[in-house]
Amino acid sequence: MPLPADIRTRGTLTPDRPLDDLTWMRVGGPAEWLFQPADEEDLAAFLAALDPAVPVFPMGVGSNLIVRDGGVPGVVVRLGRGFNAITIDGDTVHAGAAALDAHGARKAAEAGLDLTFLRTIPGTIGGAVRMNAGCYGSYTADVLTSVRVVLRNGTVQDWPAASLRLAYRQSTLPDGAVITRATFAPPKRDPAALAQRMEDQLAKRDATQPTKDRTAGSTFRNPAGSSSTGRADDTQELKAWKLIEDAGMRGVPLGGAVMNPKHANFLTNAANATAADLENLGELVRKKVYDSSGITLEWEIIRVGKALYE
Question: Which sequence positions are flagged as catalytic?
Answer without folding.
Answer: 169, 218, 300
